[in-house]
Amino acid sequence: MGTTARRTARPSAPRSVTTAGLGLALLATAACGGGAGTPAPTAGTAGRTATPTAAAAPTTTSTAPSAPATAAPEPTAALGAFTAPGTEVTAEPAGGRLTVVAVRTGEHEGYDRVVYELAGEGLPGWRVGWVDRAVEDPSGAVVPVDGDAVLQVWLTGTAYPHDSGHDELAQDLRPDRGDVEHVTRPLTFEGMTQSFVGVDDGPRPVRVLLLEDPVRVVVDVQDDD
Predict the structure, then answer these.
(1) What distance in Å separates the CA atoms of residue 10 and residue 13, rounded to the nearest whole number?
(2) Is the dihedral of CA 34, 45, 190, 148 positive or negative?
(3) Residue 210 contacts by C-beta under 8 Å, 6 or more apart in sequence?
(4) What is the pLDDT of residue 78?
(5) Measured distance CA(208)–CA(20) in Å, rounded
(6) How far is the CA of 7 from the CAs of 83, 127, 139, 212, 218, in angstroms?
(7) Contacts of 225 (CB under 8 A, 6+ apart)
(8) pLDDT given for residue 12 in this prediction
(9) Residue range 114-143, pLDDT digits in tens
(10) Rounded CA gap, 211 and 219, in Å?
C-alpha cells in the first residue's frame, strides 16, 4: 500500500478549527529512538506544559530503515493535555524550509507516538486532524491506509529536496506493535507536506509537539483504554 498519483495542482490549505500558539518544551530522556545530545528549547501548541520531565522508556519502538540517528531523545512526560477528536491542532511555521528525512513510531504508557524528523532551515508548522478518508492533495486520489481511523498530518514551511538540500523519506512505515498501523510517506507540494497515520479504534485525542536539535514534529495519539 502507499500513495498514488503525484501532485499537479494545489488547493487552498486546510482551514483550522482552532489555532494553537507556539510554547516551550525541553527535551528529556527515553524516546522512540535517539542518541545522546543536548536538548534545545522548543515550541509546541497551546495548552502544553513548558518543562517536560524524564520518564521510563517506551515498551517498543519502530524505526524506518535508513533513518538517520537523532541528536536528542523526545520527551515522554509532562507534555500537556490532548486535544479532543474533531478539533484540528495547528501551528504556523517560522521561516521553515525543511524536508522530512525520517519517520519513527513508538508505543508509550498511555499513548502511541509518530515522529517526523526534518532537516533544513527554520521551524515547521502543522495542521493535524482526523479525516474520513485519506485524500491526496492536490490529485484528489484516495490513498489506501491501514487501520480503522485516519489522522491527516500536514507539515507546513517545508521544501522540495532540491531546495532544502536534503532527501525526502520515500517509503511508508508499518510498525509491528502498538496502535499505529501505518504512516504514509511524506509528499511535498508548494511549501506543505502531507502524510496519513492509520490507527486502530479511532478517532482519539491527539497532541502535537515541536522539538529541535534536530527539528522534529511529534504527534501523540492517546490510547483508547
Answers:
(1) 8
(2) positive
(3) 22, 25, 42, 43, 44, 91, 123, 124, 126, 216, 217, 218
(4) 75
(5) 10
(6) 30, 19, 5, 29, 25
(7) none
(8) 41
(9) 999 999 999 999 999 999 999 999 999 999
(10) 11
Residue by residue, DSSP assigns the chain as ----SPP----PPPPPSS------B---S--SS--------B-B-TT--S-----PPPSEEEE-TTPPPPSSPPP-SS--PPBPTT--EEE--EEEEEEEEEEEEEEETTEEEEEEEEEEEEE-EEEEEEESS-B-TTT-PBPP--SSEEEEEEEESB--HHHHTSPPP-S-B--SSSSEEEEPPPEEETTEEEEEEEESS----EEEEEETTTEEEEEEEE---
Question: What would the pLDDT profile of 59-89 be if each residue is shown by its tens digit?
Answer: 344 444 434 545 567 888 778 899 999 999 9
**Residue of 79, 87, 70 lying closest to 42 (CA atoms):** 79
Number of C-beta neighbours around residue 71 at 10 A:
16
Q: In this structure, how many other beta carbons lie within 10 angstroms of the beta carbon of residue 40?
A: 15
Amino acid at 129: G
- Number of Cβ within 10 Å of residue 26's Cβ equals 16
Q: Which residues pair with 152 in a beta bridge?
A: 129, 196
On the question of pLDDT at 2 being above 90, the answer is no
What's the confidence (pLDDT) of residue 116? Answer: 98
Query: Could you tell me which of 129, 112, 123, 136 has the C-alpha nearest to residue 203?
Result: 129
